[in-house]
Amino acid sequence: MTRRPDDNHVGRRAYSTFAERYDAAAPTKPHNALYERPASLALLGDVAGLDVVDAGCGSGICSEKLARGGARVRGFDITPEMLELARKRCAGLDVAFHQGDLARPLDWLASGSTDAILCSLALDYVEDLKPVFAEFHRITRSGGRLVFSMGHPMRDWADPRARRDANYFTTNRWGLHWGGFGEPRPYVESYRRPLQDILNGLSDAGWRLDRFVEPLPVAEMAAVDPEHFAELSHSPGFICVRAIK
Q1: How many beta carbons lie within 10 A of that of residue 144, not counting itself?
Q2: Is-above-0.70 flag for pTM?
Q3: Please, is 165 exposed, middle or buried when counting C-beta atoms within 10 Å of its C-beta (0-12, 13-18, 19+)?
Q4: How far apart (Å, rounded) are the C-alpha atoms in residues 73 and 81?
Q5: Which domains are delineated in the chain?
Q6: Residues 6 or more apart whose Cβ sits within 8 Å of residue 131
Q7: Residue 36: helix, strand or coil by DSSP?
Q8: CA-to-CA distance for 228 and 121, rounded, in angstroms?
Q9: What CDD domains does this protein's entry cite (predicted)?
Q10: Based on C-alpha coordinates, what's the Rg of the chain?
Q11: DSSP state of 237
Q12: 190-230 confidence digits (pLDDT tens)
């Protein structure tokens, strides 16, 4: 069988195995619905009347929210199974989807064609962020904004079982079996890197850092998932960043 160039993409390989289970759980899963997503969308702000790119859109959960908020949305993802679910979720809304890879040029998007970009928990699957930030900068209009979220760089280094013998100052690939999405537990690989590489890569691409957030879970999570509410109230799991062109 002929392999496509992106068959080895860590995100595609993982999410293609549990796309439907992800789509069923993620809209209400506390880490997403009551922690990362509210923080990222708050940073993005009002999108009514704006052209917005949902980069690494997954099954279209944020695309739907953006469109219902009045945005004209163009979403893309590398995983066909996710895009199929996204098209179903956003049927009838002002959303267009494209299969695309964050690690490659976004050549179907014209320079200066978008007012805002949202990239929610997708950059962890890209080894080199510099070309991504450069492409985001190219397609955004002057004064436009980029909001992205990622795993907190220090999250795993606080736990020697996750850190093992890796070096914090290098980009390294690692994986674990995820809970919360049913059985069999999906094995998901991603890249972790030092905070300086994220922020300096952003600046080198021409972005101005506007807001850096280590989010707290919303109050509702205390009743829904008290264990993780307590954990995330004392130690962050993600970072959320807003930058301006």
Answers
A1: 22
A2: yes
A3: exposed
A4: 19
A5: 5-45+108-244 (3.40.50)
A6: 103, 105
A7: helix
A8: 18
A9: AdoMet_MTases (cd02440)
A10: 17
A11: -
A12: 999 999 999 999 999 999 999 999 999 999 999 999 999 99
